[in-house]
Amino acid sequence: MTTDIQKTEMKPNPVNKLKKKLSFSSLPYKKQKIIISILFLMVPVVLLTVFTYLPAISMAGYSFTDWDGISKTRNFIGLKNYKTIFSDIKYFEPMFVSIYYFIASFVQIGLAVVVAYLVSFGCRASNFFKSVYFFPSLINSVAISFIFIFFFQPGSTLDTVLNSIGLGGLVKYWLKDPNIINVSMASVSVWRYVGYNIVMFSAAMASISPDIIEAARVDGANKFQQLRHIVLPGISTILGLQLFLSITGALSAFETPYIMTGGGNGSMTFIIQTVKYAFQNHRVGLASAMAMILLAMCIIITTIQKLIFRNKEA
């Protein structure tokens, strides 16, 4: 009798056996690694889907309606919003403002490449300089905007500096003169992002062996030739990425000009115009169509840029 009881107690419980079989620790290491990777990847995928892709799909749908953003009725009007935009040049006039930011993007890329090259090769305190240059990228857009509002005020910092060095004749109404306001806005963009580009290019240049640079110098190559024939080909991938981000950023400039000028005095960008049509004029359908056009432009620019870099690599 005692033996039968002991045998019954020693008999494994099928439920516990199933739990052990399905437990995470019982899985092979490779499967555990795959599951953990999928779980970690699911977080950004879910966030991107909820806060980026789904709103973008909804926006595409709104562009075919006359929705005002408030009422529950959304009448389907087909391509009317797109016809309205393409039939009147006034909707594309803010695109001319983007030219200033477009030029500024090339200025900041050029400055960043040169400074990164000087800092990466032959500079003892390179980490210190990288930290100093990168600092503006850490400052919030709102804070930067208020800093430069004060900087460009009549009689403030910039005017004082120009007067002190005998260049008082160059003093302008930096944020009121339509002829100079976009140059002021674009210069803020250069100041903010050039440090970020310097750090990115410096990281890319770290993969280039100093021995190659030294060998080129011994062979008689000057700094410009080293930069052109060794450094630029070595950082072509990151250069293409930063160029794409700068160009798309030029098309979608919003925070700084909106906070500093509200889009007034000829500083209105395409994004500011879109926001005003959506939330001030209550024409969400039309604004959504504008946003879709901007998205299409960014996709076209990206495609052209990829083709150019692909042909160069070939």
UniProtKB/TrEMBL annotation:
Gene Ontology BP terms: transmembrane transport
Similarity remark: Belongs to the binding-protein-dependent transport system permease family.
Keyword Transport belongs to the record: yes
Membrane topology designation: Multi-pass membrane protein
Record's subcellular location: Cell membrane
This protein's name: Sugar ABC transporter permease
Transmembrane stretches, start-end: 34-54, 99-120, 132-152, 190-209, 230-254, 284-304
A Pfam short name: BPD_transp_1
Lineage summary: Bacteria, Bacillati, Bacillota, Clostridia, Eubacteriales
Record's GO cellular component terms: plasma membrane
Keyword terms, alphabetized: Cell membrane, Membrane, Transmembrane, Transmembrane helix, Transport
